[in-house]
Task: structure prediction
Amino acid sequence: KVGKMLVLACVDKTVELGWPRLDLNTWPGNTKAVPLYKKCGFFWEKRDTTTHLMNFIPTVLKTEAIMDYFKVTDWYNDSKRIIEVKPDGKKENGFDYFEYIWEQSGKKLRAEFERTGRGLRLIETDDYYIAASLENHELVFGRDYTVSYKIVNKSGKPLTVELNGIDDKNITFDMKQRVEVTGETVLKGKFHIDPITCDQKPWRTHPAVTTEIFINGCRALF
Result:
């Protein structure tokens, strides 16, 4: 189990350094190692020319809104993710989403990441559900588009959500909303896409519609 210890040490060091994720490249025939990588938090990104995996556990553990959950939950041992030796991701409107699921002492947590922006786009706990969605992955420069945030209060307790848009490269986004959610609501914001000034490589991190979200005062970056 030295391999597992080394991979987990890499994850721990990445968290310590404050980096958002790990990338791992291996050869296509190395399928025996894939379950180990996935159990350690990696997702296998579907590519034709190489075998590439990404691990977002550092972002999960550094996200203030869900940080307390891992005081009693072990992200490795309490994972309920289904491990299969094939590329990961579910498709929706041209996006690929990667999903983590944990359960400990009857309490559940779900977090989803988007492949090309390499960012968090959904959190679901026993108390609330928040998800960001766009109408399509392929958008035209020089136009405005709408991003939607579905928010569900599952607890019946007070739920205050504040959303602050953040510009990212060629995306301008100045959304600012604050809402008290008692049941279910959908908030929408407009963002603008300016032309890019350099070549967009298909496997590099894409510009993203980025939002700083405060959930009862605790921060998450979508």
Observations:
- The two ends are 35 Å apart (CA to CA).
- The longest strand covers residues 143-153.
